[in-house]
Design brief:
Blueprint: E1 2-4, H1 5-8, H2 10-17, E2 38-44, E3 68-74, E4 77-86, H3 87-92, H4 99-126, E5 128-131, H5 141-154, E6 162-167, H6 168-176, E7 195-199, E8 202-207, E9 216-222, E10 226-227, E11 230-239, E12 246-255, E13 258-259, E14 267-271, E15 280-284, E16 287-291, E17 297-301, E18 314-315, E19 320-321, E20 327-333, E21 345-348
Helix pairs in contact: 2-4
Amino acid sequence: MAVNLATKYEKQFAAAFAPTSFLNGRVNEQYSFDGAKTIMVYSPVTVPLTNYTRSGANRYGSPAEMSTAVQKMELTQDKGFAQTIDRGNYTDQMMAISAANWMAEEIKGVVVPEMEKNAFGNYVKYGNVIAASGALSKSNITAELMELFEAQTDAFVPDDNKTLFVTSATATLIKTSPEFVGIDSLGEKAIGKGVIGMFSGAPVVVLPISYLPTDAHAVLARKDSIMCPKKIASYKTHQNPPGIDGWLCEGRVYYDGFVLGAKVGGVTTLCTTAKKQACSVAIASHTCTITASGASSVLYTDDGTDPRFSPTAKTYSAAFTTTAGTVITAVAFGGSSTPFTSALATATDA
């Protein structure tokens, strides 16, 4: 007989999930994947201001139909696990570990970390990246982290609902920096899992070092810019299934992590000096060449959209022909020596 542990052991699961999630309450949950593997997110494209003309027609400027940027999001992570607990082993071990106990530990120690490591990997890959100006130390960590906040301010990102996620090594530098002011006592009033204080108005959350790619030191993310959808989270225990005197524990999680392209300005990673991938675009005689030495792949668009999120993005392999007025936008995903995604590079065919 199968028992749905989500109901029978609701308290145990709540206890297992809540304390271990670093993203709970810090991600955008506006979009739903219910009934769909893929969703399309439409964002309006704004237009620049023009001079108002006091005579004639179209005094506000020449009107054009509103256009939208489209981002395709498709879940890619569909994982499962299975574990048996023999009744004999259970009794020999003084009944110390029940099916519910084991399941709670599996969720806390394996499932949640894997889901969130996948999400952070995507935040780093598809968000913006700033390379530190030098080796990080307690004397320069404040200035280096402020670069993340300055970049988001310059991108008109609102100051609220931001979280500064840092590795344990970066947290040590912050806590020993004379310029950092921490929270004296968190206790039961703790802001959230792993929070050590506030930095420029954002709570600082310490992540295990494995949550971020090597040479990534911090991620500043605004809540509405990142997603970590979990379409399926199913956990069951079967008592005395065929062939087993005991229990069979099974679970399945269907999930992924995304950056919202229209709000990518709210996701910025600080990486080690010289680890950010380079990318440049050059157009001469109606021929476009994209240079990104060592990159794992290069995407580009010719319609002004961001190739990280655009359904019209193409993979660059060799120089190609362009026409006058075409704007090429390219991004290079990092390789082994410079693993962090480049800044967007653009060029216009004159």
